[in-house]
Amino acid sequence: MTPATAKSAVLLASAAPVAVIFYRRSRLTTYCLLLDYERRGKGCRDQLSKGSRFRGRLFPERSHLSPDGELLVYFAMQGQKTDGRSDPSTWTAVASPPSLTAHLFYPNGSTWGGGGLFLSDHRLMVFEALPPGAGPEYQNFRKHRILHDANSLPEDEAAALKARLKPPQVTTYPWPLKARGKRQPAIVRTARPQSLGSYDHFDYVLQDGDGYDIKGAEHIVLANWAGWDMYGRLMVAAGRHLKIYEFEPGRRLGKPTKTLDLEAVI
Question: H-helix or E-strand containing 162?
């Protein structure tokens, strides 16, 4: 049997220089890593920390990082499918990354539903029913109010939630900084047909403000993930590497300023 190609997916905190990386080293072995990219002078720390080693499957598209980067909600499956039997054990958990040890644990038992999404004002939507005997921490945990009914959400949050669960065919992510006198460049993400726990759910293209592909960025089409960090740097994850680019609108994309080797951390 040919071993699976290593793949990686990144979850960025929205309000802190923190990211969680799922590094799927082989078909059923994934490492959870933490990236601290706090600004230091003219550069960034870009320090990786090793977390849990997980035997099974983690679902990046059903996982989410809190705005401050201190909590992670994830959906997992442990074991392998067998002919004539139901899905192996699955669950949703809330943990402190890069550890996957569950503070809150929601058994599922199938691949329907699962996972969660952090909302504004310290709210966490979990797509699971409360487990039997759930204590008060399943209502409020570390200043987060935990919700289970998406029908009560405001219209804008309900739309964002729908887009998360069923991504549109094309999504545009503008550069997070103001483009000086120029139209906003963007990452354009195109959805592929999805397979279970896929790390290749999307294709990525880097375009300028007029919708033309930026020269030098052709290789990100082959990436497992691409996104902007909070300082406007381009991050590209592919296999065992996370490449970081200092991006400047109006210019071709040069060589990465840093390449982090995920394999070297584990």
Answer: helix 155-165
Cα torsion for 188, 193, 197, 198, to the nearest 10°?
-50
Residue showing tokens 């949050």: 157
Question: Which residues lie closer than 8 Å to 150 by C-beta, 6 or more apart?
Answer: 125, 158, 161
31: left (phi over 0), alpha (psi -120 to 50) or beta: beta
pLDDT at position 243 over 60: yes
- Rounded to 5 degrees, what angle do the CA atoms 181, 182, 183 make? 135
Where exactly are the structural domains of the chain? 7-265
Indicate yes or no: pTM above 0.85: yes
- CA-nearest of 198, 168, 173, 201 to 187 is 173
Pairing of strands 29-36, 47-55: antiparallel
Residue 244 in contact with residue 234, Cβ under 8 Å?
Answer: yes
Could you tell me the two tokens for 133? 């005997």
Task: Render pLDDT for 74-121 as a digit per residue (tens, 0 to 9).
Answer: 999 986 554 545 456 999 999 999 999 999 999 998 888 899 999 999
DSSP E strand boundaries for 108-185: 116-119, 123-126, 140-141, 144-147, 170-174
Amino acid identity of residue 159, one-letter, is A
